[in-house]
Amino acid sequence: MTPTDLVLTPTGVRFWGRVVPCTIGKGGITADKREGDGATPVGTHRIAGMLYRPDRIPRPAPWAEPIGPGDLWSDDVGHDFYNLKVRAPCAFSHEKLRRADPLYDLILIIDWNWPDAIPGRGSAIFIHQWRRPGYPTEGCIAFSRTDLHWIASRVQVGTRVIVPDLAAY
User: Fold this and answer.
1) pLDDT, mean of residues 82-101
2) What residues have CB less than 8 Å from 135, skipping those under 6 apart?
3) Among 27, 28, 32, CA closest to 10
């Protein structure tokens, strides 16, 4: 592990010499991730991309891609585009990336089950803004808006996101 890895610990994510408070999935942490279990997957993942709302925030990094009005993320295990960014209109199950709330104003895409997804192994595992401290996610890692922007200004494509089995702590 290096100081530039994002490492989940029992007290937050260690990154650049700080421990940043975060929330994880309501299903805890799992080595057996399944679609809809609400758990954050164990493993060494990598930052694969960054998305942002250009109508709400400035581009957080030169490599960040804008989220448009028709941008969605497929969570339909029976669809060819499972766990990929897709465009509206869609007849299959999906999650809107352009939300009314600010949770997805800035998204770091993690390479969990991406881009060559195994149906049912989990989709849309992101790093994003939390609702409030202590409020769990559906499997993502979430931070305060301020901390998320601080992290986003320092990560690169390929930055490691290490989620250990916290039962080992």
Assistant:
1) 88
2) 23
3) 28
Measure Cα distances from 151 to 103, 125, 155, 158 in Å: 15, 17, 6, 14
What whole-number distance in Å separates Cα of residue 133 and Cα of residue 124?
21
- Nearest 5 degrees, angle CA 126-CA 131-CA 137? 45
- Residue 79 — very low, low, confident or very high, per pLDDT cuts 50/70/90? confident
Residues 6+ apart with CB under 8 A from 116: none
Burial (CB count within 10 angstroms: exposed 0-12, middle 13-18, buried 19+), residue 162: middle
| Residue closest to 153 by CA, chosen among 66, 62, 63, 60 | 60
Kindly indicate the confidence band of residue 167, based on its pLDDT and cuts at 50, 70 and 90. Answer: low
Q: What is the pLDDT of residue 92?
A: 75
pLDDT of 99: 96
Q: Are 163 and 42 in contact (CB under 8 A)?
A: yes
Cα 4 to Cα 61: distance, rounded to the nearest angstrom: 16
Give the C-alpha separation, 97 to 67, whole Å: 7
